[in-house]
Design goal:
about 110 residues; mainly alpha; two-stranded parallel ribbon; 5 helices; about 55% helix
C-alpha cells in the first residue's frame, strides 16, 4: 500500500524539526500576547518567517502571508474566498474531501460545480 498523506500521520520527525520545536517551546512565548521578551521574540520569528516566504514567493508584502492550522483550513479559506454565486468550478470526484466539501457547500449557495 502507498499512503500519500505521510506527513499527517508519521511519528518520526527529522532531528532539525525536533530541535526547532524544542527551542520554541523552551524560549518563546505566545505571539501577540504582550510585551514580554518571550512574546516579542515569538512575534519576531513569525514576522521573519513571513518575510522569508514573501521573498521566496515574490509576494508584495510580508503581511500578505497568512499561516493556518493545516492545509484543510487553508483550502477552505482559499476556496470560499475565491468563488461566488454564479461562478463555475470544475473538479473531479477524486479530489480530496478538503476541496470537495467547501465546493459542495458553495454549490448550495449558487456556485456551479462540475
Amino acid at each position: 500500500m502507498i499512503y500519500f498523506d505521510n506527513a499527517a500521520t508519521t511519528m518520526v520527525k527529522p532531528r532539525c524539526v525536533i530541535e526547532a520545536v524544542t527551542q520554541a517551546m523552551q524560549h518563546m512565548g505566545n505571539s501577540g500576547r504582550g510585551t514580554h521578551g518571550a512574546s516579542l521574540g515569538a512575534a519576531r520569528t513569525i514576522y521573519d518567517t513571513r518575510k522569508l516566504l514573501a521573498d521566496f514567493f515574490n509576494a508584495e508584502k510580508a503581511t500578505r502571508i497568512a499561516f493556518t492550522a493545516n492545509s484543510t483550513e487553508s483550502l477552505n479559506i482559499a476556496i470560499k474566498g475565491l468563488f461566488a454565486p454564479g461562478d463555475h468550478v470544475i473538479s473531479t470526484v477524486l479530489e480530496h474531501n478538503s476541496v470537495l466539501r467547501p465546493l459542495y457547500e458553495l454549490e448550495k449557495k449558487g456556485v456551479r460545480v462540475t
